């Protein structure tokens, strides 16, 4: 076999991009260098750039290609006709005998290696300038699957050559400044992985929306992988935390079941149509493609590949339905998040509420609005004008020219690794993908607002809504002795704030996770069979599909939500407050009305610690404890700290700690710390006694102010009295800090007051508070303010209190 024309993949590596293109060089590099890591890559061979150039020379078409490309209009209105003319030149071309024989010989050898006469292969294009970190050629050239026989293989190679001049490839090279004839094409020929009988997908070694570097994001669907890449299906999604992959933990912090409504399989029509799409069964749609051990295996491979190349990667994988083995079939650099500047963070905030039309997966973190244009076929693209919102079923590379005119994109199908998602990130505008029914619910021509600023769920609202954009400068933020922490409500948004100079999460509200991620009252799951509300039972059945044990739905969703927040700040502490719904709020959960008493004053009623040992809620609290234990011990997030809210008496504290111990959450075991909210005057008066039972205090300044001053914090008539800066409240806080520190316990505060009032922040610093927890948008400003206060000493004129090392 002539090395000048054909190379075996195991004989090439990263230094051979000029000869076999980025894709094939990467495959060879992995085969050679990552075999010891267990990474499996299907074997095969590649035609060389020299073979491509000899094909052009032998057919005498270079001058015609250049002349035809020179006819391109400045605005490229004739791109379609120019592209078709160039591709016809390749279609008419013949392979010189030397190239044809080299390919046939290599194919015979590959078939022999697979103990068959005519092995089925995947034929992929690999451009010599593609897959560089600064330029993405992904999806611009063709791939042909289930090719069998030397004649069909050569035809696929010819079509790969022609695909170097698709309209999208021509336009991209023009924009990037690549000379068309300087780019050559290598064809990769790999043994097919029979994922048509199993599943396949894509994974990234970075969070594709926020750039958070410590996770692997995996998408999976049934059948061949083209549907995932193109965004033709809504795939399963798994998120794995990389730093905890080395041990025995199972750090899968996200798992979402996609509809996977169709799958691509082999066709019996031969070379004319080697694959086809068929509908998936109800069982396939309601079953995850990957088991946990397979998710972890892929994530470990992804980390090995990333570490080898030294930058974030975009990887395609497939599972063989015959052998059950996993394979990596492509790997290229990630080209969006890894290239972003780290100096500034842009935040978007909707300033008014709108009527929601539909929702899906948020791509990007921005907001955009404009006229909706519903397009069902790329040929209708001339309807889209600059600044419109493109609404369609799915996109592929042919859509790129019209996508560039859009202010945002909304699709019915696709996941975070779909074509629409990738292109929208590269172009820098928001997209909402996988909505399921956007093309039906959004009216052509209506004004809409697309918001991806609220976490992983993107929303489309009626009308043009006001929003603000703010740039947060992350450069030169001073360190502080007082620990600056965050208040994180939503697991979906946790990764968004990873670049902020915070040292942990001082308050993660469990009830927010329950309300938004679970939606069902835990007791309605525990006693589902006894539930009389038929509407609630139907809703619960729908939400818990795929879970044989309905309580497992609660534990699984809650533990992953907690773990995701914990991952965003690992290994810094993340303080998770056990559920603190009031009875009226619990009753609003699905199935909740049957388990909650009616109270005239829920704010001071059956809430917090009093619920956890009550027969009315004891089994629900057990589910909360199971979720914490799973996040800490099974997933490995030992940085999770538990906090008990609204603990009125020492007896309540003792009973709650006893119940937690019975659920495997004994304070002090496996490093578990348990805090208490200081929001009732008794917590201050008996601070020394509470300090014997808990590892720290977190001041809930709203409730403490309400109960110290005897003022309903929601009362408009008394709003001028409700003030955390009142001297009585400040004395309570000062007394708590003094007594807690005397007992060797830590004290933090969660609330808006330190953000809003500089003098209150000065008071806290002067009293020696250990940590201040803030909403993310206040972290930078307050950190700078606290650093200034610390440098000057106490705002009251004295020196700040001495610190213990690394207080929380």
C-alpha geometry = elongated
Strand content: 15-25%
Q: Give the CA-CA distance, first to last residue.
A: 66 Å
List unreliable stretches of 5+ residues.
131-138, 794-808
Can you give the helix content as a percent range?
Answer: 25-40%
Specify the structural class: alpha/beta
The count of helical stretches stands at: 28
Largest sheet: 8 strands, parallel, barrel
Within the largest sheet, what's the order of strands?
Answer: 23-24-25-26-27-28-29-30
Total strands: 30
Determine Rg (CA atoms, Å): 30 Å
Q: Compute the average pLDDT.
A: 90
Note down, in words, how this protein is organized.
An eight-stranded parallel barrel has the order 23-24-25-26-27-28-29-30, surrounded by six helices. A seven-stranded mixed barrel has the order 15-19-18-17-16-20-21. A six-stranded antiparallel beta sheet has the order 9-8-7-6-12-13. Residues 131-138 and 794-808 have low confidence and may be disordered. Helix 3 (62-69) runs antiparallel to helix 4 (79-92) and helix 4 runs antiparallel to helix 6. The protein is an alpha/beta fold and 808 residues long. It is built from 28 helices and 30 strands.
